[in-house]
Amino acid sequence: MPNEIFKLRKEHVNFKKMLNLLEAQLDLLHRGEEPNYQIMADILYYMTQYSDVSHHPREEAIFSLLVERDPNRKQDVAEITRQHHTIAEAGTSFHKKLENIINGESEIMQLQEIEVPGRFYVTILRAHIEKEEQSLFVMADKLLSEDDWKGIKTDTRLSRSDPIFGQDVEERFLFLCDQLTQIDSDKHP
Question: Can you give the pTM of this predicted structure?
Answer without folding.
Answer: 0.91
